[in-house]
Known about the structure:
Strand order of the largest sheet: 1-8-2-3-7-4-6-5-9-10-11
CATH superfamily of the largest domain: DHBP synthase
CATH architecture of the largest domain: Alpha-Beta Complex
Low-confidence stretches: 211-215
Order of helices and strands: EHEEHEHHEEHEHEEEHEEEEHEH
Radius of gyration: 19 Å
Number of domains: 2
Distance between the termini: 33 Å
Helix content: 25-40%
Number of strands: 15
Number of helices: 9
Largest sheet: 11 strands, mixed
Strand content: 15-25%
Amino acid sequence: MTLRLDPDQFFQAADILKRGGTVAFPTETVYGLGADATNASAIEAIFTAKGRPSDNPLIIHLQHPDQILDYCHNVPRIAYQLMEVFCPGPLTFVLPKKASIVDGATAGMNTVAIRFPSHPTAQKILEAAGLPIAAPSANRSGRPSATTWQAVVEDLDGRVDAIVCDLPTDIGLESTVLDLSSTTPMVLRCGAITLEQLQRVEPAIILRSDANLASVNSPGLRHRHYQPRAKVVLCDSPNQLSLNSTNSIAYIGLDPTDLQPPFSMSKQCQDIDEYARSLFDFFRQCDVANIETIGCQRVEEIGLGRAIMDRLRRAAESS
């Protein structure tokens, strides 16, 4: 049985984590499925609940940047500079790991992904638990990430020990992942902390290429992600979708559509922030409505738009 907890029951959530259980809780990005990163059986429970491949490393959540040396070594100067500007917040650092983090959490790699969530409920849980908490997105593997507690229930009810039922997440896309474990600092996954923002602190930071993704040491890049049951089609405008479509179709983007047939559902976002915040929840609404095709409008690949396009392309892969 999966417990439903209110945000003010963070001590109970922390107690479950300390006893080796699994707890889904909100962060500013998406809901995460947490477990003690020093407990091998607790980490195994995450992979089992999500149906997640064991070679896909997890992000470890800490309350405060001062804790980073407890779990990482050879932390470069740039990490501290970036933490001062962006942390707590949606930025994950890949660094050489210490043995205190179990190998299962890092897929056997010698690096670990660390971040410091800014969400107040997440911070309270981390403080009360006093542990490094591994917390990938709280959804079944391959599905759109959960941005509401209801989405967590849809995917994981009966599979995890508890779900903290809080408000929808603010950002709606997973954190930016920055690899600082080698000589060239590299963004492995785009998120709300943009490449442009990072480069203002350190111009040497680059964006990874799409080549040889299997070799990168980042969570969320090795397997299919973000995919609804419907077929995802990218478009430059909703007009492109109605030309030869005969099945039920939905649309999300910045341009309006008048919901004439064949459109069944639509979401016009006022800006790219709303687009990011709404995307995964819209995918799930379309699944409930048995939509067959979801048209997603492309955006310019700068700033947050780069992260949106990354998720859209991956949602459209083989769908």
